[in-house]
Structures are given as C-alpha cells and as structure tokens.
Design goal:
The protein is mainly alpha-helical and about 290 residues long. The chain has two domains: about 80 residues; about 180 residues, Intergrase catalytic core (hpI Integrase, Chain A), CATH 1.10.443. It has 13 helices and three strands; from the N terminus they run αααααααβββαααααα. Strands 1-2-3 form a three-stranded antiparallel sheet. β1 and β2 form a beta hairpin. α2 packs across α4 and α10 packs across α12. The longest helix is centred in the last third of the chain and has 24 residues. The radius of gyration is 22 Å and the shape is globular. The relative contact order is 0.10.
C-alpha cells in the first residue's frame, strides 16, 4: 500500500479527465482546461502529498497572478482526490479552503429586475427569459428544444434527452400553466422542428447573446443568463418546494443546491435584521421578493 500511495497526482487526474469524456462537449472542455491547470501545479507530486497547506500555497500563487474565483479549481481538485480515496490511495480528502467572495452560487434576479428585463425584451427573448426563470432550463437546453420533446397531456411537459443535457442525465420538466398557451401558439405557427429555429429554419439558434446584452443594458440589470436558472431554484426553495423536487426539475446536483441554500439563508438573515429594525420595511421587502 505504501507503494500505491506514491501514485502521481497527474496520473489520477488523467484518469478522471477520461471519465469526463462522456459528458457534454462544453463540460468536457471546461474539465480539460481546469484539470490541465491543476496538473501543471500538482502533476509530479504523489497524491498522498496533496495537503491543505499545498492547496493554500497554490491559491496564493494564483492570486499573485490575478484576482479570480476558485470554485472550479476546488471542484475538480475534490473530484480527483475523491477518486483517489475510492481507489484507497488516500485515507481522506484534505480541506480545500478558498477566498470568500459574494454570491458564490450566482445570484437571484429580483422581481423588479425581471419585470424590467421582460419590458425591455422583444417577444421571443421575453418568452425565453420566462422559460429561464420559471422552468430553469439551461440556455443550450432551451435553444435546442424540438417539438418532438413535448407532451401536451397532463398539463404539458418537456423531455430533455440525456445526450442533449450537460450532465448527460435526462429529465422531464412540467410546463407552468401560464407558459403553456405560449408554447402551443408557437407550435401552431411553427414551420420548423425546432422551437427557436435559426433564420433558415434548418437548425436551432446558436445563442441569444446580442439580444440579451442589449436587453440588460436597456433594463439596467447586471446578470448572467445562468442567473435565471439560479432564480428558478431560489424561488422554488422559498416557496417550500421540497429539495429533491427542485433537484429533479433542474437536474441539479446536491452540492450546487447547497450553495443556493447558503445564498438563500443569507437573504433570510438580512430580512431578519430588517425585521428587528423596521417591521414595515420587512413587509415592503417581502412584497418585492414575490415573483410572478
């Protein structure tokens, strides 16, 4: 066993990288990029020597180059170390602290911001924004939707096939009742198999970056498209939707959902402070928080 403990970090990182090859293309690219960075720093070291101190020194070196976040660094480092632990090469995964930053899981787009975004969006983008925060679809999942993925029975639902999902895990998402008429109207006028076809109708739209950027500028809102998905999770949690249901709807891991829970608790702590200083202000804030 002592000899096995001398397995190099780079060897195990390469094994994990190959395991990620079944994931979606964008996920593979992100994994390759991040694992390559870790291998450059730890590749020649035995995995048993990857300690909390070695990790902290890595973070400090990286911060000397530029200020940045380390969530992906920690994500893939933990992935490799957990893989090593399963192979009984290390007994436990060391702590991997990273610098504190605000809103680690993204942010919730507030109701007033959502209204401004929808008011400043064209008809198609407005519909896409509502799909984002009401159904939690990832941008690529939404843009690649085909009509053969829809079922109009039992209130309507969309089947996301595993090969078209980032995590390679298919799921079914029910359509909110207020969005169902918009989907049906779009289906009645459809001349393509895609819900959001390109100009020629031969494939799906690649992205909506230009429209989204202009809409945000006009609405005065700073947000990523992925924050709509975060908003969907936050709203469901605030409305007491069970955690396992939120994970089923969004195809979200427990780890990511815990980060959102942390963000939600911070909001609630701020609301508690407001309640103790100005109960009337709390009621007004609560009304602003209600979405849709």
């Amino acid at each position: 066993m002592a000899i096995e403990h001398q397995v190099l970090f780079g060897v195990l990182a390469e094994e994990v990288r190959r395991l990620k090859a079944i994931k979606a293309e964008e996920t593979q690219k992100a994994a390759n990029r991040q694992i390559k960075r870790l291998v450059q720093n730890f590749g020649c070291r035995p995995v048993s020597e990857i300690s909390e101190l070695a990790w902290v020194e890595y973070v400090e070196r990286e911060l000397q180059k530029r200020e940045r976040k380390f969530y992906d660094d920690r994500k893939y480092m933990r992935m490799i170390l957990l893989y090593s632990q399963r192979k009984k090469l290390i007994s436990e995964v060391p702590p991997l602290p990273i610098p504190d930053v605000d809103d680690p899981a993204g942010r919730e787009i507030l109701p007033d911001e959502l209204r401004r975004l929808e008011d400043c969006a064209g008809m198609t983008l407005r519909f896409q924004i509502r799909i984002g925060w009401k159904m939690g679809l990832r941008l690529r999942e939404m843009m690649r939707l085909r009509w053969d993925q829809f079922s109009w029975e039992d209130g309507g639902s969309i089947f996301l096939r595993a090969k078209r999902v980032k995590t390679r895990r298919g799921r079914e998402v029910s359509i909110p009742t207020d969005l169902l008429p918009f989907f049906k109207a779009r289906k009645d006028l459809a001349e393509s198999e895609f819900v959001f076809p390109n100009r020629n109708g031969t494939g799906p739209q690649d992205h909506n970056r230009t429209a989204w950027r202009r809409c945000k500028a006009k609405a005065g809102v700073k947000a990523r498209w992925h924050d709509l998905r975060h908003t969907c999770a936050t709203v469901m949690l605030r409305r007491d939707v069970p955690e396992y249901v939120v994970r089923l709807v969004l195809g979200m891991s427990e780890r990511v959902l815990k980060r959102i829970y942390l963000h939600l608790r911070r909001d609630d702590l701020r609301r508690a402070a407001i309640a103790m200083s100005d109960p009337g202000r709390l009621r007004r804030a609560g009304k602003r928080k209600m979405v849709g």
